[in-house]
Each structure stands twice: as structure tokens, then as C-alpha cells.
Amino acid sequence: MIKVLLIDDEKMALEYLENIISWEMYGFEVVGALTDAKQALKIFRRTRPDLVISDVCMQGMDGLDFAGAIREIDQSTHILFLSGYKSFDYAKEAIRLGIDDYLLKSDMDEELLLTKILKIKEKIEKEQQKKQYTEGMIFRELFLKNIEEREYRGILGEAEYIHLHKKYYYLILSLRHVPRFLEEYLPGICGEEYLDELYLKSLIHTEAERGGLRDTAAFAVSETEMLALLEVKGSVISQKEIFEKLYRVSDRIFGEVNRKDSMQFNLFFYPAGCAIRQFRKYYRENKNQLNQCYVRQKPRIMELGSADAAFLTKQERSNVSSEQIYEAIKAADSECLEVYMETMLIAIEQEDYVTYLWYVKEIMRAMRRLEIFLTGEKRGQGFCFAESAGQYDMRNPCDMVKFFRFKFEEIKKAYEAECGGAYSNSIQEAISYIHKNYGREDLSTNLVAKQVNISLSWLSTKFKEEVGVGISDYLNKIRIQRAKQLFDEQDYMIYEVAEKVGFTSSQYFSKIFKQISGVTPNEYRRMNRKKQG
Question: Is 144 in the same domain as 184?
Fold first, then answer.
């Protein structure tokens, strides 16, 4: 599939562009459709589309500035400009930027647009075929798929084929990231993590050259790991000198990448020369060392497989279950919960990532179960597990423990409220009325006050004092919880759900949904479809 990014600051024009043809039918994948060029540039960095279709005249960053920014990142991206009027100056600048084509909006129809993009698609496919068996791609396949070198014997020349068997030295840049299974419990928590491959390749190349090494290949081996194959320039030197060269280069890369990305990369180097498939085996045998990064609060630079980073044997600790955690929270057993937190902290200190990840997953399961219990439609007090998660750095294990402690207290209060012990009678009555009538468009603080027969000012003050949030915020939270349930139950349109939960405007509904849940309704629906399919 050819990846396409669409940009137009006029919403109706953008929707027309999205729907004028069936993109997937013609082999295109629309990776983004945005009205803001600066946001589109972020999507471009993450998705690296093959084709960008952009309006020329836009507020803020216009199409020419946007194309110039793209060219600084990637010279090979194809660009098709759209414009509402003819302009020779625009055409000249477009030619300078290497734009593929220029289409007037007044002339655009399905047939003309299709003709132009299929022509560009043919060009892209030819370029992709030429790149298919470059040296870097072959090394990547040898590493990821364990294909034998002889599979490329008939494709490569003698010199290129010999390169596949040479001894190389290796660097691994590993991006600190949130454990992937958290996405199931905290939707959107992993969404912003990606490798800037072009930047990393450029950095590796610059520092390798500076340190007397040659970067034969550099490529991503996962969403969070980059592998580089290095050679020593010039005559053969001692193993000690090789180690020192490799360490110095690694140290400079480590310092630069973490200066740019706020200490988010671990770096591993391997100074014992070997062929790529041999290293693949060694890498897999030592994968635990990379996994230990889950329980490190700060990134490190280290030798892969070295004694100073020896593998840890899992400590003999009882594997607590989500059922035990669930019961401990319900029973308000603070002592038991604190034991769980202390166990996690010990695991972090000893870099015992197996125990750490086990506890994280089981606590998540217990909290999800409590969320379902406490946020039913007829319950008196809501609890949103994902709320406040964005205030904690889930890549930092100690922040994860802080998040859990915060949530334990929140759940305790919510559970006490469910049992009727947390709120006064008037506030409990107001909460019950909100839960029964959240779908009314005219539901307001004034209406709730009349229903429970107390003054508006007293209710507002007392509600905030006892519940911790204002009535409007509480109502929005309940409405969004119900909206999620509706999206989970059926593939509703966004405006349908907005109406069902009491919003008069789907735009306002989307804004509140994003504020509370951290993702837009469309993103939430896509994540649901991915889980189900």
C-alpha cells in the first residue's frame, strides 16, 4: 500500500478530498487527514508517507513552507499540490521544491485526481523496487528473518555477496518505552513512541566517521530498537583499540541522542566482530539484558552481554494474582497493598523486570475489574482507571508505583461511596439524579438543585467539597463513560453517541471526550475495531 497524507485547512475541502475516490481500492492507505500543517508535519515524521497531497494556500504554515519542511526531512517524498487559483510564482517555487504535480481545485474531479495519483503511484512503486534489495535491506532481512546468505547469491555481485559474510561490530539504540500491554488498559498511552530513523541514521553516520568507523548499515529492528553495523576503517588494529573506538563512538551517540530526546535511549555495543546472522543469535540469547530496561529509571550505555549487566534470576516471590489485589482493594487492606508496592520497588532496585511486569499486569487487571464494577450506569460514583494516567511517566517504573498508589486511594473512596458511606444524603441524591438523567440535553446544575430541593450555591459548594469536582465536570465524566460503553457495544456514529449521552454538539462532545479520555472518539473507535478484529 502507498501511504498518503492529506492536508487542507478547509474542513469541507479536506472531507471532499478524503471521499472523492476509494483510496484503498487503488492501493493507497490514508495515514492522516489534517487541517493544520504543523500537526501534519508531526504525523509525517511518524508515518513517513510516500505521497503528500496538500493545499498551497493555508493559514499559518502554507503548502510551500510545509513542502520545504518535508524536503529537509525526506527528499524522496512525492508531493501533489492543490490550489484554488493559478499563480506563476507558486508554480516556480513548486518546481524548485521538486513537486510532482500541481492541480487546480476548480478542475479537480475523480477522474483527473485519479489519473495524477496513479501516475505518481507508478513512479513510487518503481523507486521501491529499486530499493528492495539494497545492502541495508538485505542485512535487515538477514537479521529479522534469519534468511541464509545464499538466498541472495543470484541477486548480488561478488563483492556485495562477500559483504554479507564479513565481521561487523554492532550498536543497538533502544528507546525507553511504555510496556505494550498497557495499551489494553490505558488506550493511547503508547501512541507517541516512535524512532526517528533518518535522524538516528544521520547521527550514527556522523559519529562513526568522526571515530574512524564506517556505518555499513543502520535500520530499525522494532518500533523501539535501532541496529547499526560498523566496520573499522584502515588496517587491522588490536581488540583493545577496537573496543576503545567503539566505546567512544557509542558514548558520543548516547550523549547526543539523549540530549535531543531527554534521556530516553539506552545504548548497547558489541565489540566482538561477527557476521550478521551470528550476531542475531547472540542478540536473541541476550534479549533479557534489553528487557531489563523496563525497570531502569535512567538510561545507560553498556556492552551487550557484559558481566556488569549480568542477567538476573527471578527472585522467589509469590506471584500475586489480580483476584488477590481486587479483594485487597475492596477490603481497604492498606497494609496488603503497601506490601505489593514494596515488592515492586524491590524488583525495580534489583532490576528484576519479570516480577515488576507481572505485578503491573495483575494490578491493571484488578483495577479494570473495579472500574467495571464502579462505573455501571446505575452506580452512585464513577471511577475512570485511565484518568490522570497522563500525569505520570509510565516509562519510569517508580512513576508507575506512584500512579498505582494514587489509584488505590481513588478506588477506595469510590468503593466507599458505592457502599453509601462517603457522601451526605443530599449529595448522594444529586449523584443518583445525574446518573439517571445524564442523557438529557437540558440537564444543568440548576436543574439538579431544584430536583434535590436545595439552593444552587449550597449544592455547588457542597458537591465540590464532598466529591472533589464540580457538577459540570462530574456530569461530563459520567457522559463520557457511558459514551465509551456505547462505542464498545456497537459501531455507532459519533453524532449518535453524542446525542444519546446528552451533548447538543458532536464537536463539543469530541472536545470533552479527548480531555477526559486522552484520545478522540475516532481514535477510541479505531482502537476498539483493532481489538475486535
Answer: yes
Query: In whole angstroms, what is the distance from residue 51 CA to residue 178 CA?
Result: 31
User: How large is the C-alpha radius of gyration of the chain?
Assistant: 28
Question: Are 238 and 346 part of one and the same domain?
Answer: no
pLDDT for 387-421, tens place per residue? Answer: 778 788 888 888 899 999 888 887 776 665 555 55
371 and 503 inside one domain: no
Helix, strand and coil in the chain, % to nearest 5 = 60, 10, 30
On whether residue 316 sits in a domain, the answer given is no
The SS3 of residue 311 is: coil
What whole-number distance in Å separates Cα of residue 130 and Cα of residue 126?
A: 6
Give domain status of residue 356, yes or no: yes
Query: Does 140 share its domain with 125?
Result: no
Stated length of the chain:
533
| Boundary residue ending a domain (418, 446, 464) | 418
Tell me, yes or no, whether 304 and 188 share the same domain.
Answer: yes
Which cell is 344 given? 515492586
pLDDT at 313: 38
Nearest to 5 by CA among 28, 41, 37, 30: 30
Cβ of 91: how many Cβ atoms within 10 Å? 15
How far apart, in whole angstroms, are the C-alpha atoms of residue 228 and residue 221? Answer: 10
Question: Each residue of 31-68: pLDDT tens digit?
Answer: 999 999 999 999 998 888 999 999 888 887 888 888 88
Q: At 170, phi and psi to the nearest 5?
A: -130, 145
| 219: DSSP letter | E
Residues 6+ away with beta carbon under 8 Å from 281: none
390/403 Cα distance (integer angstroms): 10
**Beta-sheet strands, E only, within 75-193:** 78-83, 101-104, 168-175
Neighbours of 255 (CB within 10 A): 13
Please say whether the beta carbons of 45 and 261 come within 8 A. Answer: no
Are 276 and 139 in contact, with CB atoms under 8 Å apart? yes
Residue 355 near residue 314, CB atoms below 8 Å = yes
pLDDT surpassing 80 at residue 237: no
